[in-house]
Each structure stands twice: as C-alpha cells, then as structure tokens.
Specification:
The protein is α+β, with helices and mostly antiparallel strands and 153 residues long. It contains 3 helices and 9 strands; from the N terminus they run H-E-E-E-E-H-H-E-E-E-E-E. Strands 1, 2, 3, 4, 5, 6, 7, 8 and 9 form a 9-stranded mixed β-sheet that branches. The radius of gyration is 16 Å and the shape is globular.
Length: 153
Amino acid sequence: AGEKAVDYLAEMGYAHMKPTYAEVNNNVAYISLAYQKDDILYYPDIIDVQVALDNGQVMAVEAISYLVSHRERDLDKPKLSEEEIRERNTNRFDKVENIRLALIPKSGFNEVLTYEIRGQIDQETYLVYINADTGVEEQILRLIKKDNGTFAM
C-alpha cells in the first residue's frame, strides 16, 4: 500500500514522497507521506493517502498541509554534525535505531531543522528532535504500535 501511494503521488506530480506512518482500518491503509530532499525529511510537507487493501486502489488524497507548506527552502548546513548529536543525546536510549535530518513545524508557520533520533527506552519507541544548530531539544514523541498501525504522541 505504501508503494502504491508513492507511485500514485509521483504520477500526480508529487515526487520524492516517503511514507512515515500508516494505519489500517476496515481494509483501508491510511498512509502519511512526507517530502524528502537531500536526505532531509520535511514534515510540514505531508500528504495523506488512503489505499484499499483488497485491490490497491487509491481512494483519497489529502494534501492541504503540503499545498500550504511546500516550497523551495534554502536551508543552511547544520552547525552540529550527526556524530556530535549522537555523542550528546544517545546515552539516554537503551538502543538507537536511526538518526536523520528532519525539518519540523513550529508554531506560527515557523520551521526548524533537527536531527530526528529514533530509539528505544524501556521497550518503548521514541522520536526525539534535536535542533541541528543549537543542540536544544525541540520535541519528543512516543510511538505507539498497535495491530492496525503506528501512532505518534
């Protein structure tokens, strides 16, 4: 279903979209996809797609966030390296699954470039967003895995 959503969006002119979260309900996959460019995931540029699991048909597309937020951005290179972020912030995790650059939305249509650290603490999965320039923690989300998908809180 994720591949079907990516292919459909590419055909509609929305290239470089990467599935981030999914939920299955009543034989329909609800997939959120974020724009990705130069190894940076752009969370403000989200498109949600519904794909029928029985025949792979795309049933709905909601692109308001993408249409409002998507534009060419001239982002500076992060002042902190991934290695510096890893050294400063991964000691609180039992296991680090990955670290990647992500642009996240802030209040008032502001955005901040962060390192997204995905890791385990006491068998729970968390996403911690660290400012790529200052090293300040911007946001923490806990991933809740259920039979029908994964949710971030």
